[in-house]
User: Which sequence fits this backbone?
């Protein structure tokens, strides 16, 4: 390949000499049938009788360049992110990943039948355990829950949560209701009970428009607009008092970008000064609460080309504890391997981003 | 009124790009035909319900903005002159009349109401006070009716823009709204998109309805972001190369990150939008203006100056107070210390004078 052409991250050089924890590795079902062995008979029959072929979301269309970096596509074809051997040989081994947290983003949020959603979540968690966490000790899992029914979600967290290989519960940014609402609190209580973090991933599809001004026309808009759903969740979690109730809770935004967060915090802080009587349980300035409880995965970096400006944007976060290294494997986010982390980061901050912020966030990685 | 307010008169004149003139109860009646007067009395205004977020003060108004006349805050021109225009040396003020007239579910009623609001603005405000300009309100969800109203009003020299609200039924880049942009270009008027709306049925966040006003208000930039993304990606500025858009009361510190985010993902996905011939950020820098209020206030004020540098279009940022609302920005305190004198002058008045042709 020639210099300057678009290439995937180099496979033979680790991006960092020290410990590396990748907080966002996507694993994908090869197809819906691979879930059959993990589904109860009733739901297997239901899928077959209804002719349901797939519940993939449209967030990463299979043919779009962004959906898989060329060198992270399985050489024999098939769905990117579906082959453990490829993950090992193209990421875990060459990049000397200490731990990789896997996220399976599947269409559970789009299901309206609560029992079916719960069955699918159970099967996905068991599949994740059997096919990924069991054979590969460097991987850690994220518990998929049926958010449609918090009671069933808690049951699933209590069923699978005791397994120490799961490090967080996984919720969609595009939820039906803002995630700070009290109906969801039993899930956070369950997460706390098991020492799990809460991850919020880019995705979900509940029928709500993807923007507060309705449905846009283009996939590019869907992708860019996802940051707005994360903004709504950040505001909701603080305003509803989730962090006042669950003092040890850590929330990780996954694949959210992060450069939008400073302006959200600045506006929130200013409004809190004028409006805090409405939310008396928010007993500290919101940015201080977020600095303590909120974390964000690194890729895709929604930053400028100018590296000085990017460092300024990182400083605008106001905390060095918030960013967690991620590759967003297998999505194609950077052309040059050196761009997988921002250039010019001061070394202590780089070390924090690469691993120690993640160990401080995920109790089960310590 | 306290004497200290009057004593605060500034030497540096400002253009205030967001002043709210309120419609006193019954004031539109003389401007409505009998058929719609009767409709208003019998049925009244109807939008989507379910967006109830009571503000921190009645009407969201400043406690000191209630005129002694008994008219509502922003509803008494004489009081507004003393309390605001004279007190802080407003050289020109842009009125953005928020009435719900443009977002009525009944399209014919919406058209009649918007026409009444515009006639009322001419008679009660523009012809009485030469410092004031106004936005034409229009039935924004029914572009044929909106265009008819714009065509009727655009020649009045008091109208400086076409006023839309940011929470729409569909993203504003979509083709159904293009006739409004065509009219704007025809009459050489900017499109002003103001905070609010939210009575068109979409939840006010991509994750549904939050509980509190502090979320409604803090979350409003999400709607502005959606509109910026939509107008750019749909190619509105390719189709209307002279169109100018002003985003009002949305803040602006979120803009540079959005420009970065758009550029980055466009570079990977541009084959989907071949009608774009330039980077998304270039359309934004050339076509979009921003008002400052509510000014973002980071703990380190230097960060705001960095944000302005990241934006890289200092000719597009314009000062606004949002008088008489509670979250009013004071011109003596809103801008960060350390701004270059020329930049301050541009933000306080130069940019708005250029955009709106204020002389």
Assistant:
């Amino acid at each position: 390949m020639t210099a300057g052409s678009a290439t995937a991250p180099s496979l033979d050089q680790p991006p960092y000499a020290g410990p590396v924890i990748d907080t966002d590795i996507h694993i994908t079902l090869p197809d819906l049938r691979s879930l059959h062995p993990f589904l109860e008979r009733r739901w297997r029959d239901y899928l077959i009788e209804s002719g349901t072929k797939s519940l993939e979301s449209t967030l990463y269309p299979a043919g779009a360049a962004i959906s898989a970096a060329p060198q992270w596509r399985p050489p024999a074809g098939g769905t990117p992110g579906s082959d453990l051997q490829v993950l090992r040989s193209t990421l875990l081994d060459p990049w000397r990943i200490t731990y990789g947290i896997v996220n399976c983003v599947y269409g559970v949020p789009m299901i309206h039948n609560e029992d079916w959603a719960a069955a699918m979540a159970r099967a996905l968690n068991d599949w994740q355990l059997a096919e990924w966490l069991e054979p590969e000790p460097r991987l850690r899992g994220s518990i998929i829950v049926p958010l449609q029914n918090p009671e069933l979600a808690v049951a699933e967290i209590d069923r699978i949560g005791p397994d120490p290989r799961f490090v967080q519960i996984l919720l969609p940014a595009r939820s039906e209701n803002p995630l700070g609402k009290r109906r969801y609190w039993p899930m956070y209580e369950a997460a706390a009970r098991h020492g799990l973090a809460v991850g919020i991933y880019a995705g979900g599809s509940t029928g709500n428009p993807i923007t507060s001004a309705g449905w846009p026309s283009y996939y590019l808009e869907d992708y860019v607009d996802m940051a707005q759903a994360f903004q709504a969740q950040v505001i909701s979690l603080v305003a509803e008092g989730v962090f006042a109730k669950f003092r040890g809770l850590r929330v990780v935004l996954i694949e959210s970008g992060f450069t939008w967060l400073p302006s959200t915090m600045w506006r929130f802080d200013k409004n809190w000064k004028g409006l805090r009587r409405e939310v008396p349980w928010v007993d500290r300035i919101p940015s201080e609460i977020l600095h303590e409880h909120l974390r964000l995965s690194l890729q895709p970096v929604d930053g400028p080309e100018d590296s000085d400006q990017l460092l300024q944007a990182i400083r605008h976060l106001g905390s060095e504890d918030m960013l967690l290294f991620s590759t967003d494997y297998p999505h194609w986010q950077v052309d040059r391997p050196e761009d997988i982390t921002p250039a010019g980061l001061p070394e202590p901050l780089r070390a924090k981003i690469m691993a120690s912020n993640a160990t401080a966030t995920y109790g089960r990685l310590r | 009124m306290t004497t200290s307010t009057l004593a605060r008169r500034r030497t540096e004149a400002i253009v205030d790009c967001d002043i709210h003139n309120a419609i006193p109860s019954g004031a539109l009646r003389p401007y409505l035909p009998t058929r719609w007067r009767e409709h208003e009395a019998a049925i009244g205004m109807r939008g989507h319900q379910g967006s109830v977020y009571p503000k921190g003060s009645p009407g969201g108004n400043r406690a000191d903005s209630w005129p002694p006349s008994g008219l509502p805050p922003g509803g008494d021109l004489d009081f507004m002159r003393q309390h605001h225009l004279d007190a802080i040396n407003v050289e020109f003020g842009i009125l953005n009349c928020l009435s719900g007239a443009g977002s009525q579910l009944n399209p014919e009623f919406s058209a009649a109401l918007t026409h009444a609001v515009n006639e009322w603005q001419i008679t009660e405000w523009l012809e009485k006070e030469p410092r004031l300009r106004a936005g034409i309100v229009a039935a924004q969800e029914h572009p044929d009716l909106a265009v008819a109203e714009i065509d009727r009003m655009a020649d009045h020299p008091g109208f400086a823009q076409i006023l839309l609200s940011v929470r729409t039924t569909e993203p504003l880049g979509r083709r159904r709204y293009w006739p409004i942009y065509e009219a704007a270009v025809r009459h050489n008027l900017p499109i002003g998109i103001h905070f609010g709306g939210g009575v068109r049925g979409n939840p006010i966040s991509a994750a549904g309805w939050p509980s509190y006003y502090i979320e409604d208000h803090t979350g409003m930039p999400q709607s502005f972001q959606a509109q910026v993304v939509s107008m750019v990606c749909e190619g509105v500025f390719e189709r209307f190369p002279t169109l100018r858009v002003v985003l009002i009361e949305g803040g602006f510190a979120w803009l540079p990150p959005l420009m970065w985010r758009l550029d980055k993902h466009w570079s990977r996905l541009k084959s989907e939008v071949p009608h774009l011939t330039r980077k998304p950020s270039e359309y934004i820098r050339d076509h979009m203006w921003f008002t400052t209020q509510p000014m973002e206030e980071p703990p380190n004020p230097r960060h705001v100056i960095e944000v302005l540098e990241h934006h890289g279009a200092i000719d597009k940022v314009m000062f606004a107070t949002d008088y008489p609302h509670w979250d009013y920005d004071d011109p003596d305190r809103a801008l960060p210390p350390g701004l270059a004198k020329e930049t301050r002058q541009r933000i306080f008045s130069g940019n708005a004078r250029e955009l709106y042709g204020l002389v």
